[in-house]
Amino acid sequence: MAFEGLADKLQNVFRKLTGKGKLSEADIKVAMREVKLALLEADVNFLVVKKFIKSVSEKAVGQTVLESLTPGQEVIRIVRDEMTQLLGGSLSDIKIASNPPTVILMAGLQGAGKTTMCGKLGKYFLKKGKTPMLVACDIYRPAAIQQLKVVGEQAGVPVFEMGQEKPYKIYQAALKEARKNGNDMLILDTAGRLHIDEEMMAELKRLRDEAQPTETLLVIDAMTGQDAVNAAKAFNEEVELTGVILTKVDGDTRGGAALSVREVTGKPIKFVGVGEKLTDIELFHPDRMTSRILGMGDMLSLIEKAEKNFDEKKALEMQQKMRSDQLNLNDFLEQMQQMKSMGSMQDILAMLPGGNKLAGMSVDEKQMARTEAIIQSMTMKERENPGIINGSRRKRIAKGSGVSVQDVNRLLNQFEQMKKMLKQFTGKRGKRRMMGLPF
Ligand code: GDP
C-alpha cells in the first residue's frame, strides 16, 4: 500500500515525541534526524528533504513549541503544515478555457498511465457536465490508438483519430470536428517513449504551439520515484508544464515522487490515479495527501467516495427496511455491491486513521465474492424470504455456487444475526442505547 513504510516510520517518531511531557532542543534534533532518514528512505529528493527539515526545525525549536503543554503535538502540527506546503498547499484544479474548447495536452513516458488517464479525465469531466473528446496523437503505436478507443468507449467519450497523420494536423482536424459537434474539451493523448528523446520533444512542442493548450499535464508513475521527478523536470524545461498527474498511487509507492515533484518542478499535482479502473481518479488535495502520508487517515476522501457511490434514496429505503425488520438477502447483496463499487476493501481501510496499521490484516475479498455467489444462486423468492430455504434448497444453492452446504448455512445464520443487530440499533430502544442511555 502507498506510503506505508514512510507513514510507519513517521508515526514512530511522533509517538516518541508525544510520549514526553517536555521537549528539549536536543529531543527535536533527534526527531528531525529520524524524519530526515524516513524521507530519504522513501526516495524523496535529497535537496527537498534538506529544505523541509530546515524549515520544520526552525519552527519546532521556537519558544511557543518548547513551552507548550503539548510540545509533541505542536511538532506534529508543524510537520503536517510544512508537508502540505511541500505538496502544493491547496487544491489546484484544472483550468477551463473561457473560450471553449478547453484543450488538455497530456504528455508522459511510455507506461506512465497516460492513455488510461485520458479515459479517466474524459469520464470525470463528462460527469461534470462537459462534453469532452479524446484525440489520438500517439501515432507510432497502432495499439495506442486502439487502446484510446477502448478507454473512450468505456468512458462514453468520443475518440478522434487519423491514423499516422502528423499530430498537429490531427489536432487541427479534431478542433474542427469538436466545433461541429459542440465538444467543449479536447484531451490530447500523445506519444510516449521509454526515455526522453529529442524527436519526441520536438513533436510535442510542435503540437503544443499549434494547440496552445489550456493545460499541459505530465503524467508520471509514482512507483518510479525519482526517475519520475527527473522526467518531470526535463519535460517542464522543454514544454513548460502547467501541472502534473501522479498515477499508481494505489501501488506500493514509497512517496518520493509525490513529495518531490512539486518542489523540483514548481508545478502543482492536479490529479492522482489510484487504480486501473476509469473511476480510479481523485483530485489532488495536498492536506488530505499529507494526512495519508502521516498515517492520519483520509476521512474526507473516504466520505466523498461514499457520497459518490451511495444513493441517498436507497439508503433511506434501506433504513426503513432495517427498522421494520424487512431486510432481505437482495438488500444484503446490494449493500455488498455498493461497498465493492467504492474500491477494494484494502483501499478503504487505508483511508481510515491508522489504516496503514491494518495493511497486514487481510480483508477476505474472496469470502465476499463467495457470499455474493451464494446469494446469486438463490431464486428471487428465496432472497426475499430466506425462511423458506430448507435442506434441499440449501443443497441446490451450494451446488450452484460451488460451495459447501455449511457455507450456505453460515451465510444464512450470519444474515439472521445481522438483521437482529440492525433492528436493535435502528429501533427506538436502540437509538437510546447508542446515546448511552441504559433503558
Ligand atoms: P501509457 O503508455 O502512458 O499510455 O500508459 P497506459 O495508460 O497504457 O498504462 C500503463 C499500465 O498502467 C496499464 O496496465 C494501466 O492499467 C496501468 N495503470 C494506469 N494508471 C494506473 C493507476 O493509477 N494504478 C494502477 N495500479 N495501474 C495503473
TrEMBL record:
Catalysed reactions, semicolon-separated: GTP + H2O = GDP + phosphate + H(+)
Pfam family, one: SRP_SPB
GO CC terms of this entry: signal recognition particle
Signal peptide span: none
GO molecular function: 7S RNA binding; GTP binding; GTPase activity
Localization per record: Cytoplasm
Keyword Translocase applies: no
Keyword Transcription among record annotations: no
GO process terms (BP): SRP-dependent cotranslational protein targeting to membrane
Enzyme Commission no: 3.6.5.4
Domain SRP54-type proteins GTP-binding: 268-281
Similarity field: Belongs to the GTP-binding SRP family. SRP54 subfamily.
Domain notes for this protein: Composed of three domains: the N-terminal N domain, which is responsible for interactions with the ribosome, the central G domain, which binds GTP, and the C-terminal M domain, which binds the RNA and the signal sequence of the RNC.
Function: Involved in targeting and insertion of nascent membrane proteins into the cytoplasmic membrane. Binds to the hydrophobic signal sequence of the ribosome-nascent chain (RNC) as it emerges from the ribosomes. The SRP-RNC complex is then targeted to the cytoplasmic membrane where it interacts with the SRP receptor FtsY.
NCBIfam families in the cross-refs: ffh
Protein's recorded name: Signal recognition particle protein
Provenance organism: Guopingia tenuis
